[in-house]
Amino acid sequence: MFNRKQLCLWVLMAISSFSASADEGMWLPMLLKQLNEADMQKKGMRLSAEDIYSINKSSLKDAIVQFGGGCTGEIISNQGLLLTNHHCGYGQIQSHSSVEDDLLTNGFWAMTRDQEKPNPGLTATFIVRMEDVTKQILGDVPAGLPEAEREQRVQANIKKVQAQTTAGTHYDAIIRPFFYGNEYYMYVTETFRDIRLVGAPPESIGKFGGDTDNWMWPRHTGDFSLFRIYAGPDNKPAAYSPNNKPYVPKHHLPISLAGIQQGDFTMVFGFPGRTTEYLPSQAVREIAEISDPAKVKIRTVKLGILDQDMKADPKVRIQYAAKYASVSNAHKKWIGEMRGLKKLDAIAKKQALERQFANWVAQETGRKATYSQVLPQFEQNYATLAKGITLARDYFNEAVLGVELLNYAQNYLNLAATIQQAGTATAASPEIQQQVDRLRTSAAGFFKNYHLATDKKVFSALLQLYANDLAPQFHPAVLQTVSKQHKGNWTAYADEVYANSNLSSAEKVKSLLQLAPAQLLTKLMADPAVQLMHGFSTVYRSKVLPTYTALNDQNTLLNRTYLQGLREMQKDRKFYPDANLTLRVSYGQVDSYKPADGVTYDYYTTLEGIMEKEDPTIPDYKVPAKLKELYQKKDYGPYGMNGQMPVGFIASNHTTGGNSGSPVINARGELIGTNFDRNWEGTMSDIMYDPDRVRNISMDARYFLFIVDKFAGAGHLVKEMTLVNNGPQDAAPANSKAKPALKLKRNKKQQVKAD
Predict the structure, then answer these.
(1) Backbone angles phi, psi at 584, to 5 degrees
(2) Backbone torsions φ then ψ of 108, nearest 5 degrees
């Protein structure tokens, strides 16, 4: 029999053990053998851990790339064809668009190789191998060092290991902290820089549902774009050249025509950006009750202005399409995150775990010495941040830097500082000249996608929010101009700043950058936009950043210690590290869910749903005539099933930002879809995972093939791919012994030609 005290402790442990639940986790590929292989095979996977990640032979990892700086892509042909999301390639599609040749609206398909469009600055990065370098990084770092000194020592060791690893090669090495710096892993990478746009559907397909459906299920979006990696004659990375050849990959993903069924095993392989699953309750409260509400409020105002101006002017729509999508994406996610954390009662669950931790610490003297101050110090630090520091930080980043003119002015504020440090010599120093040259080069790109009248509206609205919502101690003195000279009229103040700034047009900037350093400094110091940005930066750097940085450093150390203690307390638990934009594997199953009482969502959608949503009066729900024609004729080629054209599906894989474009792979290592979103009810999974409601949303690979072949008439691209139809996954029962892993190599007879 339990006594009362034992029973209470047992209940606490039961509700707050937080062991990684079914389908939770973003796992390191190199550790799958020891941590996950058995579980994955029990759930139906027919591969081995080495089929997924190997440094001795080709494996699935060799078909996965980090696309640009924040998405994932997968190689789907032996000629370097790369599949990612439409929204991941959106900036490149936009860069090739104009009012006269609007690729965003009309789509684009390269019918020959010479029509494929180069994209300066775009990269595709493969992982060559991973390595645990914890000993090399932390071996000479004594315990108890102040966090700033520890970080200096760690960074010096990182540079040393990186240099040793990459010497004499064309590879790079990325070393990142895991578990808040308790461990360090190195990713050796190979980056290609000649990436060309091959195809993209029109927005009415690639962005169907738009911001209305963003983060929502059911979903009917053909969210994909196609690129091609080019290499030099030795198949290695090379700068753009018309003479480069399509890259020949070590592995490309075969694409399944067999489709998906409820309960099928799914695996997502990609580069998730950031999660914080091990935060204390105080941090979760800060996010849910201070930070997210503030950021949502500011972005709601900004999005309203952008939306109005984009609808009024086609040129503005193209200029701000990518910007609007970026601002809107996080805005809607934060709303869902707040609601999800509340519904999950996340703060109370974190507090329950902390009570369990405190009880465990109290049981031994050694634990008390190491861990007893962790939770009280968290409480003290977050209480200090709640006294305006967190809010001021968010308003600086969202309201001040959310104004394009002020964000742009930061560059010139830095230039002014460089000139001041160099003195007032007539000739520009090399450092000054480098900055001036960079600003000249970047000006064309900035003003190509800049609309002064729109930014001026954003300026007056967001700075008014800043002034109204933050305590006077966080106001720069220059804001007094609004009340004194303009009687509180923010529009009049905006008119004055934009009319008199030398940064508000390409012509003014061009003239400004032709001046000698002394004259340039005089102009910059008198510029109202630079003055205003200087005022905001001064307040931020003197009254916000020092406190925030000091407490953040303390919290990093506390998180490291707390997580070390949790891993010691829960020895039987498999811990996965938070996402940090490094290659990870998550796995789960195709599954429906219940978002609310009395409501159940099925696990797939079809083309019929697009026709049901069609509304020509709503931009998000316009349907191309060609797509309607194919639907009416049921002309789906080999991609339809039972008279229907599959479009999307959901599964229980644990994903986040950065997983956009990630391949969704079945039990046999075949591509069945491309991940592009999460459901709104599950966006809190960055902080706390809920197996009942967290779902990743993917485009069905068959819909992608259908659009390329039947809609776009680009069947030559499909012919590059390896299409297979191996039938249902035939998942093993949960209590059965997994079948032997299958080889990745496919028999030619398994290939299916597109018509």
Answers:
(1) -140, 160
(2) -150, 140
Cβ(292)–Cβ(334) below 8 Å: yes
| Nearest-5° Cα angle at 309, 408 to 324 | 60
**CA 193 distance to own-chain centroid:** 20
**Helix, strand, coil: what percent of the chain each, to 5?**
50, 15, 35
- The CATH class, in words, for 61-110+190-276+576-750 is mainly beta
Determine how many CB atoms are found less than 10 A away from the CB of residue 617.
6
Determine the 3-state secondary structure of 695 from DSSP.
coil
C-alpha distance from residue 252 to each of 72, 81, 83, 698, 699 (Å): 14, 9, 11, 19, 19
Q: Mean pLDDT throughout 676-696?
A: 95
- Alpha-carbon gap, residue 388 to 394, rounded angstroms: 10
CA–CA separation, 76 and 623 (whole Å): 27
Burial 392-411 (b: 16+ CB within 10 A, else e): bbbbbebbbbbbbbbebbbb
Task: Please list, in sequence order, all residues whose beta carbon lies within 8 angstroms of the beta carbon of residue 177, skipping any fewer than 6 positions away.
Answer: 154, 183, 184, 580
Helix (H) or strand (E) holding 650: strand 646-651
Active-site residue identified among 48, 204, 501, 660: 660
Element (H, E) at 255: strand 255-256
Cα–Cα–Cα angle for 354, 4, 14, nearest 5°?
40
Q: Which residue out of 48, 59, 77, 87 is catalytically annotated?
A: 87
For the CA atoms of 521, 523, 527, 529, the dihedral, rounded to the nearest 10 degrees, stands at: -60
Question: Which pTM was predicted?
Answer: 0.87
**How many angstroms separate the CA atoms of 437 and 478, rounded?**
30
Pairing relationship of beta strands 245-246 and 604-606 according to DSSP bridges: unpaired
Residue-wise pLDDT for 249-297, tens only, equals 999 999 999 999 999 999 999 999 999 999 999 999 999 999 999 999 9
Burial of 203 (0-12, 13-18, 19+ CB in 10 A): buried
Cβ atoms of 617 and 234 within 8 Å: the answer is no
Is 87 tagged catalytic?
yes
User: Helix (H, G, I), strand (E, B), or coil: what is residue 246?
Assistant: strand
Instruction: Compute the distance between CA of residue 232 and CA of residue 240 in angstroms, rounded to an integer.
Output: 9
Integer Cα distance of 453 and 14 in angstroms: 58
Structure-block tokens of residue 27: 């796992």
pLDDT digits (tens, 9 = 90+) for 193-238: 999 999 999 999 999 999 889 999 999 999 999 999 999 999 999 9
Give me the residue spans of the domains in the chain. 61-110+190-276+576-750, 281-565
What pLDDT, on the 0 to 100 scale, is given for residue 365? 94
In angstroms, rounded to a whole number, what is the distance separating the alpha carbons of residues 461 and 300?
11
CA-to-CA distance for 120 and 353, rounded, in angstroms? 49
Selecting among 62, 211, 223, 309, the annotated active-site residue is: 223
Residue 264 a catalytic site member: no
Q: How far apart are CA 184 and CA 580, in angstroms?
A: 12
Q: Pick the closest to residue 51 from 259, 229, 267, 271 (CA basis).
A: 267
- Residue owning tokens 């300026």: 459
